[in-house]
Amino acid sequence: MYDLLIIGGGPAALSCGLTARKRGLETVIVSADAGSSWLDRAERLDNYPGLPAVSGRELLRIFRGQASDAGCSFVTGVARQVQSLGPAYFMTLVGNDILESRAVVLAMGAARPKLLPGEEGLLGTGVSWCGTCDGMFYRGREVAVVSSWHGGVEEALFLSGICSGVDYYALAAHELPEKEGIRLKEGRVLGLSRAEDGRSVTVETDQGRAAYAGVFVFRPAVAPDRLLPGLEVDGAFIRVDRRMAASIPGVYACGDCTGQPLQVAKAVGEGNIAAISAAEDLGRAG
Ligand SMILES: Cc1cc2nc3c(=O)[nH]c(=O)nc-3n(C[C@H](O)[C@H](O)[C@H](O)COP(=O)(O)OP(=O)(O)OC[C@H]3O[C@@H](n4cnc5c(N)ncnc54)[C@H](O)[C@@H]3O)c2cc1C
Q1: What distance in Å separates the CA atoms of residue 143 and residue 135, rounded to the nearest whole number?
Q2: Which of 70, 130, 228, 244 could form a disulfide with 274 if both were Cys (CB 3.0 to 4.6 A apart)?
Q3: How far is 212 from 142, CA to CA, in rounded Å?
Q4: Which of 16, 30, 39 to mutate to test the pocket of ligand 1 (most atoms within 8 A of CB)?
């Protein structure tokens, strides 16, 4: 059981982790992928105090090194779902594992996953974002995996052990699975729809269509109010107060995911505040 679980791998998450450790919190940082922070793409920053003309990648390396030296644990994977199970008790599904914590910080950046046409309406009734959670519903049946990143490969391998066959559709270029039982499909995915039998789901591409008992969609990000049902948002951003507390007790948010300005200095400052607030609320103010 961690004191604090931070979702994100950018400056907000790393700053939050650093301060959380200084406050004595057992802290884990869960992030989708090395290099997935926006900061990694910034060629040169001229507005981060103390480090003129630094590259985004170098700044990220320094932030991460500091958080690591302070004693943060790191887990690579997409947080798919956070459940609030009572005072100071959260369970977070990361890939196929469950992590427990007393508080959660959302530092997921501003990137919003763009859903496929038809995807949202079919979610939970033939379309799933989690192989571990829902794979067994499709035992011995044909399913499709639609994935924008290599995380879908692991899921397809898992599903191929349960389902009779897996068709794999890549939404973007990434390393593809090679295993018996997994068939790589050509074509650009246009959308998902209910099949004529009223139960299966059809994947439509520019080269044709095929129906499956279930369709699993994987991306390296999840919209905040999907990740944590009941979380209040303001349009695309998570609603927070000045302590960076979100609408659910024990949940905090920082960085680009709380709104403008989308800048490193603001992300770092908010990460620091979120950690202090979490420490105070967990009785570790010292
Ligand atoms: C090209 C470019 C140039 C820029 N130049 C500047 C500049 O000069 N000055 C400046 O101040 N700012 C600049 N920025 C903006 C700056 O990079 C962002 O404001 C900053 O990175 C925000 O930090 P963050 O930690 O909030 O989010 P991010 O850095 O975006 O990090 C979010 C992290 O969360 C992870 N994540 C998201 N969802 C999940 C999930 N469900 N599970 C696990 N992990 C998840 C992502 O993979 C990512 O690692 C620039 C941005 C870009 C793209």
Answers
A1: 9
A2: 244
A3: 6
A4: 39
User: What is the spatial distance between Cα 85 and Cα 108, in angstroms, rounded to a whole number?
Assistant: 22
Co-location of 108 and 232 in the same domain: yes
95 lines ligand 1 (CB under 6 A): no
- Enter the pTM of the model: 0.87
Instruction: Work out which ligand 1 atom sits closest to the CA atom of 39.
Output: 17
Q: Is the CB of 37 under 6 A from ligand 1?
A: yes
Q: Are residues 42 and 73 in the same domain?
A: yes
Q: What is the pLDDT of residues 27-61, one digit of tens each?
A: 999 998 877 788 998 899 999 999 999 999 999 99
**Residue 206 corresponds to which tokens in the numbers above?**
């520019």
Q: What's the mean pLDDT in 187-211? A: 95
Residue to mutate (ligand 1; options 264, 266, 273; most atoms within 8 A of CB)? 264
Q: What is the 3-state secondary structure (H, E, C) of the chain?
A: CEEEEEECCCHHHHHHHHHHHHCCCCEEEEECCCCCCHHHHCCCECCCCCCCCECHHHHHHHHHHHHHHCCCEEEECCEEEEEECCCCCEEEEECCEEEEEEEEEECCCCCCCCCCCCHHHHECCCEECCHHHHHHHHCCCEEEEEECCCHHHHHHHHHHCCCCEEEEEECCCCCCCCCCCEEEECCCEEEEEECCCCCCEEEEECCEEEEECEEEEECCCCCHHHHCCCCCEECCEECCCCCCECCCCCEEECHHHHCCCCCHHHHHHHHHHHHHHHHHHCCCCC
What domain count does the chain have?
2
Confidence of residue 177 (pLDDT cuts 50, 70, 90): confident
Would you say residue 286 lies in a domain?
no
Query: Which residues span the domain enclosing 184?
Result: 119-218
